[in-house]
Design brief:
Length: about 350
């Protein structure tokens, strides 16, 4: 895919004084709900009003959206507030209906991006459109799959393209609903610096109290905008209640977010070091997760030793681990002194855990 500034022309043409803001409810629930939220967002920094019409759900039986009826509600939003509209499309039928109702922007969700067949079907349905089309990252951290979906749209003649970073699924329990994997999004930016990149902090967070910090990180990494799920009564929302903010909270958030734009020769340095520091922060979080999981295993070993009346310290086992880790560390550029200090500290913490269990 050719990398040039034509990719971001649609965004530059908007001549915004702030990052692009896409906001609105996770799901269109009723006409009154859609219009109320739209009027609350009318005179704010919001540029596009979002609402899910078709909701892909992991398991059947949950609310799966109001369907095409909701497109008429979005038309009313545009008529009454002047806000441009956007919704998710997952197949050719969705595309056809959205275009017929003059939806201004379409996005393709994470569950669709994982399938080249679905992406090609949508690309064929959109061929030649002048609508803006955004592509969310796939649910799994696969950069090639993400780029491949965008390339299919580009090959179909769609020039107004952008990407949405909404985080990645993981079987591990973390503070995020979907782990951000910032380093992968940074790699995406490095490959296509002229492709508009939007952050979806709502789906990364899963909880509204994390949305602000994730948004700030995205802006620090020079993202072009934010897609924030917004509901006038989030606690009673029909889907994703925990991660939606109120319109007033969104206004406060946009006011408090810091936009760091450099104009001198140091800007490239600041961009790179910010990206690298974010990678370190993410890796540090992963280290703590791994150490926490290691201690849980140590606790289980402590329980076994207590049952069998076995001593906590097993010197032969410990010396074997230490020797192996020193050799492994050398292959990764880590000094013997560092490896010794680190694993002695880890081993001592394991002993503390096991002694606590045995003495209990």
């Amino acid at each position: 895919m050719e990398n040039n500034q034509q990719m971001r022309k649609w965004l530059d043409d908007m001549n915004l004084s702030h990052p692009l803001v896409i906001a609105g409810p996770c799901s269109a629930e009723t006409e009154d709900q859609v219009l109320k939220i739209a009027h609350d967002l009318k005179d704010t920094d919001v540029n596009y009003y979002r609402a899910g019409i078709w909701k892909p759900r992991t398991r059947p039986g949950n609310f799966e959206g109001v369907g095409a009826l909701g497109l008429k509600w979005l038309q009313k939003v545009k008529e009454e507030t002047g806000l441009k509209t956007t919704t998710e499309v997952a197949n050719a039928t969705h595309v056809k209906l959205a275009l017929e109702h003059d939806i201004d922007m379409l996005w393709i969700g994470a569950r669709s991006t994982v399938s080249p067949f679905i992406m090609q079907e949508i690309a064929d349905a959109l061929e030649g459109t002048d609508k803006i089309v955004l592509v969310k990252n796939p649910v799994n951290p696969d950069l090639s799959l993400w780029l491949g979906g965008i390339e299919r749209l580009h090959t179909a003649g769609i020039t107004k393209l952008g990407a949405i970073h909404r985080g990645f699924s993981t079987y591990k329990k973390t503070k995020y609903r979907n782990i951000p994997e910032w380093q992968l999004a940074i790699e995406f930016q490095n490959k296509f610096p002229d492709m508009p990149l939007i952050c979806d902090p709502s789906h990364i967070a899963g909880k509204r109290d994390l949305v602000f910090d994730i948004s700030q990180t995205a802006l620090d990494l020079n993202y072009d905008g934010l897609m924030v799920e917004t509901h006038h009564d989030p606690n009673n929302a029909w889907s994703d209640a925990a991660q939606q903010v109120t319109p007033s909270n969104l206004v406060h958030m946009m006011r408090d977010l810091k936009i760091r734009k450099e104009t001198d020769e140091a800007s490239e340095y600041n961009k790179k070091i910010s990206g690298l520091r974010t990678q370190i922060d993410e890796l540090d979080n992963e280290l703590l997760e791994l150490l926490g999981n290691r201690m849980k295993v140590s606790d289980e070993i402590g329980q076994l030793k207590k049952q069998r009346n076995v001593a906590v310290l097993q010197s032969n086992r410990w010396n074997a681990i230490l020797g192996r880790m020193i050799l492994e560390g050398e292959t990764k550029g880590l000094s013997e002194e560092f490896v010794l200090r680190m694993f002695k500290a880890i081993h001592q913490e394991s002993i503390n855990h096991q002694e606590k269990i045995i003495k209990a």
